[in-house]
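Title: Prediction job returns without error message
Component: structure pipeline
Severity: low
Priority: P3
Assignee: unassigned

Description:
Job completed but the reporter wants confirmation the result is attached to the right record. Sequence as submitted:
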Amino acid sequence: MSAGPRRILVVDDDPLVATTIQRVLRPEGYEVDIALGGAAALDQARDRRPDLVVLDVMMPGMDGLEVCRQLRADRELPILFLTARTTTADRVRGLDSGADDYLVKPFAYAELLARVRALLRRAAPPTTVLQFADLTLQVETGEVHRGERLIRCTAREFALLVHFLRHPRQVLTRDQLLNAIWADEETDDNVVAVYIGYLRAKLDGGGEPRLIQTVRGFGYSLREA
């Protein structure tokens, strides 16, 4: 899965259908590319690496079943078939070719959006969540929350916070933090204290109780007072 907005490739030989689906998906925050045929779809999938493909079955030349098989040979990604065919045999052929879901035309746009959301959720990798008290950090997405409050961290602040969350209630010395976060970089001796100050300002900025405590003579610890 790509980082940032999810990218969807819409494949349909009818430009009106393709652009209509694009207009439905874009307001939901997706980046949407269009391919008007099978060969173009394979080229776009290789170049743009979509997170999901919405694929019409009945297209001239290379049909959706063959496009699906070739996409599957390249990599795993969710594929939602769109088709006017309604028989059970048609559904079975579509699913056997590698599609994950099947939506029959005409369809409600709300149902299309629901199917897209469900497929993207199922395909998403598991997220590593680190939590202490009301502090939550999602490692893959970089999101940090104190309760309901979103906290924006720099890359170095984030790395330091991850280290604290992986060692809750332990006393971490300045040298341990330097070695873990700054490694062999040339840094000022005061850099740990400076970044602890940055984190405290952000973590406690809503008036919450302090979580990163100073253990005098030893270092710092992520613990409740």
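Comment from assignee: result matches the submitted record. Helices lie at 15-25, 38-48, 64-74, 88-96, 109-123, 155-166, 174-182, 191-203.
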